[in-house]
Amino acid sequence: MHIPRPGIRGKILICFAVILAFFLGLTLVMQNESIKLSREYGENLSSYHLVHRFRLNLGSFHALADRYLREPLSVDVEDVYTGIASLNAQYAELIPLEDVSIPVEFEVRATGYGLDAYLPLVSRAVGLRAGGSPDYYQAFVKATRIEGYIDVYLNRMLSALMQNGEETYAKLSRKSEILNRTVFISMILVSILAVVIIVLVAEAITAPLRRLAKEAEKLAGGDLDAGIVEAHTKDEVETLTHSFATMATSIKEMVEGLKEKAELEKLLHEEELALVSMGKALREAQFMNLQEQMKPHFLFNALNTIARSALLEHAPKTESLSLGLATLLRATIKDSGALSGLDEELTVAQAYLEFQHARFGDRLQWKIDVPSTLLSARVPRLMVQPLVENAVRHALEPKLEGGSVYIKARKRKGKLILWVLDNGIGMSRERLNEIRSNIAASLTSKTYGQGESFAGMNAEIPAIKQELGNENALLEGTGIGLANLATRFAILYGDTCRFEIQSKLDRGTLVRVIIPLGAAIE
Q1: In terms of CB atoms within 10 Å, which end of the chain has fewer, N or C?
Q2: Rounded to whole angstroms, how far apart are CA atoms 471 and 467?
Q3: Residue 225 CB coordination number (10 Å)
Q4: CATH 1.20.1420, domain 8-187, yes or no
Q5: Does an H or E element contain 407, and which?
Q6: E strand or H helix at 286
Q7: Distance between CA atoms of 445 and 495, rounded to whole angstroms?
């Protein structure tokens, strides 16, 4: 079976593909190693915080028990028993730390033995105090002494974890240094190899053309024996040199046979040179057009290739991330007007949330509540995703335990109402007023902050909180890009739209958008 050799375009594409594969491979290796180093360091840090938190909780519990024994009416006895159960549960989280090192294992077990003696004594003292017996104080004194021992064990455990963390950090630093040095050397070698490949490919393409140019100059100077150039490249260059040689031979035969038509021959020669120049310009234009076409198609093809590779390698998470990124990329470069379907906007927002879920894990939760009858509604393009991104980046990401995003849409009196609620870090009153001012400046009508709008939104917040399932989830965002959205709403809907925001510090943010259905200026 005869396999055709690639032409000039194919050689250039193969060259770029080889170089890109080298750099992509290095990037993937470096990223993978960096993730491993970060994960290992994070595990050590979380172990230290776990022990430190247990130590603080133990001290708080002991103080609570002491306060109850001194003043029983100031503390609910159920809180003491709840604290005992909580300490037992927290100690269960410390047990896996036995695998860190032998000293840590010893201190974990010593802490467990201490708790086995401490908690029954506290429970007994509380029971005696509740029964009015004066012997409670002796039992609590013993418990206090044991609590001191447990605190020493925890302190030594923290020291052992810190020492282990320092050793781990030193090891990670050495590994990171070796990785950086290896990647740097590899980049240099790959760059040198890339330069060599580019030079070889360029030489293979341009060498016959340079010889052909010299022969063309000779032919233009009157040397009728010129024009013979051999090129066995099996591509367009070979076709060009063969055609040029045939042309030169024909010109020579015509000149020898038709001396009296020298003027006609000169004109023909000039026309042939012009054709050569036009052919070169055409190839350059084709190459530039190919480059422009490659940009978006290459990105989508690369993402699809990664997704297929992940599928074959049984890596569903990587496949999902690749497809999600392709969805987001397609939404950002898609050019089909100012409006799109609400279902498309929710798909983009869902893809963004799933993509971020790979980063935040269980720290990021979300819920989308939109009736199927509204999915075909026409809304401004990229309307939902920026609001969701604001909530994730500026409200939930700074929050250690993460949080939730709730997206809800309803139809009321011919208008679409969209809510985006988070239970993130919230914002101060000053920051909220600044954001409202920016939004108000972008709209032609008054925005949230007027008495009537504020009262209406306050009436809606409890219902949305109840649907989200978190009594402490009240609202927050930072307003980045909100003015841009408000400007687009004003352009599309004039003064028939509303863009409102409410937030409380450390509780969350609610953004509400009200737009008329079917009234946009497309």
Answers
A1: N
A2: 10
A3: 11
A4: yes
A5: strand 403-412
A6: helix 262-312
A7: 5
Neighbours of 360 (CB within 10 A): 15
In angstroms, the CA 441 to CA 447 distance is: 9
Mean pLDDT comparison of 112-116, 176-180, 261-265, 275-279, highest-scoring range = 112-116
Calpha distance 139→118 (Å, rounded): 10
Instruction: Report how far residue 314's alpha carbon sits from residue 486's, in angstroms, rounded to the nearest whole number.
Output: 43
Non-local (6+) Cβ contacts of 193 within 8 A are: 22
Whole-angstrom Cα distance, residue 449 to residue 468?
Answer: 24
End-to-end, the C-alpha distance of the chain in Å comes to 56
Does domain 335-516 bear CATH number 3.30.565.10? yes
User: Which single residue is written with the structure tokens 């009508």?
Assistant: 445
Give 236's contacts (C-beta < 8 A, 6+ positions apart): 7, 8, 283
| Among 476, 456, 474, 455, CA closest to 464 | 474
CA 464 to CA 411: how far, in whole Å?
Answer: 15
Cα torsion 247, 248, 251, 253: sign: negative
Q: How many residues would you count in the chain?
A: 522
Strands 403-412 and 415-422: antiparallel
pLDDT tens per residue across span 34-52:
777 777 777 777 888 888 8
Query: What's the CA gap between 104 and 201, in Å, rounded?
Result: 61
- Domain ranges for the chain, please list them: 8-187, 208-310, 335-516
Looking at residue 125, its amino acid is A
CA distance 290 to 367: 43
pTM of the model: 0.39
Cα gap 116→163, rounded to integer Å: 27
417: left (phi over 0), alpha (psi -120 to 50) or beta: beta
Interatomic CA distance for residues 447 and 433, integer angstroms? 11
Contact criterion met (CB below 8 Å) for 427 and 440? no
514 membership: H or E segment, kind and range: strand 508-516
Instruction: Give pLDDT, residue 500.
Output: 92
Residue 64 contacts residue 58 (beta carbons within 8 Å): no
Joined tokens for residue 388: 């969701």
